[in-house]
Design goal:
The chain is of the alpha+beta class and 210 residues long. 36% of the residues lie in helices and 27% in strands. The longest helix has 16 residues, at 10-25. It starts with a strand and ends with a strand.
């Protein structure tokens, strides 16, 4: 059963955060307090969390956000418990989240994946590409997600279906600037201004191959 997690579902949210999210994303974790605040409507973007629950066990979950200035959706995290992998839950969660974001007015739905050209970790990106996702052909820097964390420069942005040949550079530029401002709570610095200036008029959507 898929459950939409509301701000008042504190126990379920904390269980998902600690049981599935932290083991998978400990190195670049968002604070639980940030999730609670966003779900309560206290952030300048909308956040949604869904989990798969069967017989009281959390088998997987996904979190995704909608940014008002750029009109972009962002799938931030998706994780499936080891025992439930290859069950189809991941693909279902991803595409239902994308469908909802588009219904809410998203101009594009994006996600973040480790860049395999630097890490050698191809499996995750290849799975998303099999599902129809494509990589934005532009440099991306993820903002620092919380106190004591640093920016991640080893990621690429992916676009989720429906896919076009390209996305307007202004949309991508506005989204990245908006994401940094709401996450780091400051205007883009020299590094980010360079990243934004490098974004072309049209950002191609490409498939990366080994």
């Amino acid at each position: 059963m898929i459950v939409d997690v509301a701000a008042e579902d504190e126990e379920l949210l904390e269980r998902y955060y600690r049981e599935l999210y932290l083991p998978e994303f400990a190195a670049q974790r968002e604070p639980l307090e940030a999730w609670q605040s966003a779900l309560a409507g206290d952030q300048p973007y909308q956040m949604f969390v869904r989990v798969v629950v069967e017989r009281g066990e959390i088998l997987g979950g996904i979190s995704y956000e909608l940014y008002p200035q750029s009109g972009c959706g962002l799938v931030t995290y998706m994780v499936i418990a080891p025992a439930a992998r290859r069950s189809g839950w991941g693909k279902r969660l991803l595409f239902e989240a994308t469908k909802e974001l588009i219904a809410r007015g998203a101009l594009a739905v994006l996600g973040e994946v480790n860049d395999p050209r630097g890490t050698g970790e191809w499996d995750r990106l290849e799975r998303f590409q099999r599902w129809g996702c494509r990589v934005l052909d532009a440099r991306y820097v993820q903002p620092a997600l919380g106190p004591g964390l640093v920016r991640d420069r080893n990621l690429v942005l992916i676009a989720l279906p429906p896919i076009r040949e390209s996305i307007a550079g202004d949309v991508v530029r506005t989204f990245i600037a908006e994401l940094h401002e709401v996450t780091e709570r400051c205007s883009p610095d020299d590094e980010m201004r360079t990243v934004l200036d490098e974004i072309p008029e049209r950002v191609r959507l490409v498939e990366l191959l080994r």
